[in-house]
UniProtKB/TrEMBL annotation:
InterPro entries: DUF7121 (IPR055545). This is Coiled-coil protein. Residues 1-23 are annotated as: Disordered. It comes from the Archaea.
Length: 285
């Protein structure tokens, strides 16, 4: 029985060491995954903060777009009022038709075509004819405007207002471009944060799996250690039983010898010191 218990104890010790090594290896892997997960969570948080900052900048620029658009529209409304007066004055002065500005733009366009394109003689003749006619109209319109001070002043006023509105339009366009840039950066950064969060979730899932496996090995290790302690207790009991048995057998022998010696003592035989000690040990003296 003692041999079987010792053999089982050795097997349990070997298994216990194996459980311990596996548990420690799994815990080490779980720690690595936990560190990876924590780093990814930290990076995710930093990206989200960065994206939120882009969002804040986008909203600030959009607010500037809104403010400058309101100012532009307000000024354009004033310009439209002046142009309405211009149209009314043109109609009253019989000055309807294309404006002098539009005539000048068309002349410039046709002259550019004449200079940059290869034309057939017929097309070039037709083009020159159109340019000549427009130049005549331009001169007439110019004379009409110069002779009509009120109309000229209204046109100058309207153009000045349009120029002011254009300044606000240019400013709002710049803010709109910046707002779009920050919006694109915000979207890109949020996507990167989502990707990193997914990696963090995957690392956490692996961490839980390794941790659970490590816990299983630890339970097996604890169970094996308990069995070893139980075997040690059983062995100690068995050894104590053997010792107690030997003590009982020894005392019986002492008593038997003491009885013989006591009979000799009663008959008057002389006993040795050792004989006397035996009698004393047996309790007969």
């Amino acid at each position: 029985m003692m041999k079987e218990l010792n053999t089982k104890k050795q097997d349990l010790k070997s298994a216990s060491e194996d459980y311990k090594e596996k548990r420690n290896a799994l815990n080490a892997e779980a720690s690595t995954l936990a560190a990876k997960r924590n780093d990814l969570n930290k990076s995710t948080k930093e990206l989200i903060n960065e994206a939120q900052e882009y969002k804040k900048l986008r909203d600030e620029n959009n607010e500037q777009v809104k403010e400058n658009k309101a100012k532009r529209d307000e000024i354009n409304a004033k310009a439209n009022e002046v142009f309405a007066k211009v149209d009314a004055l043109r109609a009253a002065s019989n000055l309807t038709g294309p404006s002098i500005k539009d005539i000048r733009k068309e002349i410039d366009r046709l002259e550019f075509t004449q200079q940059t394109e290869v034309l057939t003689p017929a097309k070039e003749k037709d083009l020159v004819s159109k340019i000549t006619e427009l130049q005549k109209q331009y001169v007439v319109k110019k004379d009409q405007l110069e002779s009509n001070t009120e109309l000229k002043n209204l046109l100058d006023e309207a153009q000045a207002i349009r120029d002011e509105a254009s300044e606000f339009h240019n400013v709002l366009s710049e803010y709109a471009q910046k707002a779009q840039e920050y919006h694109d950066k915000m979207i890109s950064t949020f996507k990167e944060a989502d990707k990193m969060r997914a990696e963090s979730d995957a690392a956490h899932k692996q961490f839980v799996e390794f941790q659970e496996k490590a816990d299983e090995q630890h339970k097996l290790f604890i169970s094996a250690q308990k069995e070893i302690r139980d075997i040690d207790k059983e062995v100690r009991k068995m050894r104590k039983g053997e010792t107690d048995g030997k003590k009982v057998a020894s005392m019986e022998d002492v008593r038997k010898d003491a009885a013989e010696l006591f009979e000799k003592f009663k008959s008057g035989e002389k006993l040795t010191t050792e004989n006397l000690m035996t009698l004393q040990k047996s309790g007969m003296l």
